[in-house]
Amino acid sequence: MSHGRLTIGLFTLAAAIAIASPAIAAPGSDAEFLQREHRLRLGKGGDKWELALEAQFRGKLKTLPTLRAAILEESRALSRRLRDNRLAWRARQGQITSLRQSIAKLSSGDPRRDALERRLRDVSRGVANPEQVSRLPQVSTSVSRLSASRHQVLRSVSWLRSSFALLKDEYSRLAADDDVRSALAALKHGLSSTERYVDDMRAAAELEKLAATDWVPFYWRGGVWKLPVLLDEESSISLAWVERHQGIWITYNMAEAAGWDLTQARRRVVKVDQERTLNAWDVDGARLQLGRVKLANVTVTVLPPEGEDIGGRIGSAALSAVTPTARKAELRIYFAATPA
């Protein structure tokens, strides 16, 4: 990627296997050769040699049931909040409407106004029109928690998929190495493989479907609708949905958290409004994911630190391949394929 983002060693063999073996074999032995030359180590079963990455891989697999439970629980929690609000609104709507109408008939100085406004605040506390339910703090918090669970699933499955491919390629290479085969034969040991993880990867793909949906949750904050976005398969960010906004903007802090190096990025002036311009960076090759919608190799504009108050933005122009439809009462934006 041209934005110069440093690749974390999870996906590079050198970093993935550079973990010391649990025991150092005798110098000059076949075991020492496998450890030193190929960074292999004897697995827990005592009869197969494996890469250190495989142990990390198994550890990540063990987290999948927890991730599944979390995303299902957060989904249920949000559904409960939306249902409870609908019922509460249905019960109080008549009284709220009546109080608003009574207040509207009174002048600003009418002594009866204060008492009616207090009653309206009491009746309205903790409830909202279903079309505006995201304005409730507990609801927007629930959406944020669900988004975090979804992104954690996407990150984990992406890591597993990349690591699985890396392990498969490396074990194939080692299995074809005459010296490795000779050392293993002398030890009467075998070489590990990825075959036993095929079913696990199928399970991971099924789990991914809970997060890679044709919709994403969204919420109201700071006067705008916010969309949770996964940046470069790792960083969770929130972008304001501005229908007619051109391009994709993120803040400097978002870029910094994602590990982007902006030293080689193109500089350009962006016009925020009629009175404000900023010197920003254009970064090519970024990847964004919203549910199952993936934007690959896109250009993202990074605002300077003094533009932090503007926040990140995205509009329909950046999603030309899909047609977004907001369902505010469900707190979801659905993405349908745009007809050719």
Strand content of the residues, in percent? Answer: 15-25%
Q: Which radius of gyration do the C-alpha atoms yield?
A: 27 Å
Helix fraction bin: 40-55%
Give the N-terminus to C-terminus distance in angstroms: 30 Å
Describe this structure as you would to a colleague.
The structure is a single chain. This protein has nine helices and 14 strands. A six-stranded mixed beta barrel has the order 6-7-12-8-11-10. A three-stranded mixed β-sheet has the order 1-2-3. Strands 4-14-13 form a three-stranded antiparallel β-sheet. Helix content is 43%, strand content 24%. The chain has helices at residues 13-17, 30-38, 52-62, 64-104, 112-124, 137-175, 178-187, 198-208, 252-257, and strands at 40-42, 48-51, 190-191, 215-217, 219-221, 224-231, 235-241, 248-250, 266-273, 276-290, 293-302, 313-314, 322-327, 332-337. The protein is α+β, with helices and mostly antiparallel strands and 340 residues long. The chain starts with 12 loop residues before the first helix and ends with a strand. The radius of gyration is 27 Å and the shape is elongated.
Q: Which tags fit this structure?
A:
single chain, 340 residues, 6-stranded mixed barrel, 43% helix, 24% strand
Short description:
The longest helix has 41 residues, at 64-104. The protein has nine helices and 14 strands.
List the helices and strands and how they pair.
Elements: H1 13-17, H2 30-38, E1 40-42, E2 48-51, H3 52-62, H4 64-104, H5 112-124, H6 137-175, H7 178-187, E3 190-191, H8 198-208, E4 215-217, E5 219-221, E6 224-231, E7 235-241, E8 248-250, H9 252-257, E9 266-273, E10 276-290, E11 293-302, E12 313-314, E13 322-327, E14 332-337
Parallel strand pairs: 2-3, 7-12, 8-11
Antiparallel strand pairs: 1-2, 4-14, 5-6, 6-7, 6-10, 8-12, 9-10, 10-11, 13-14
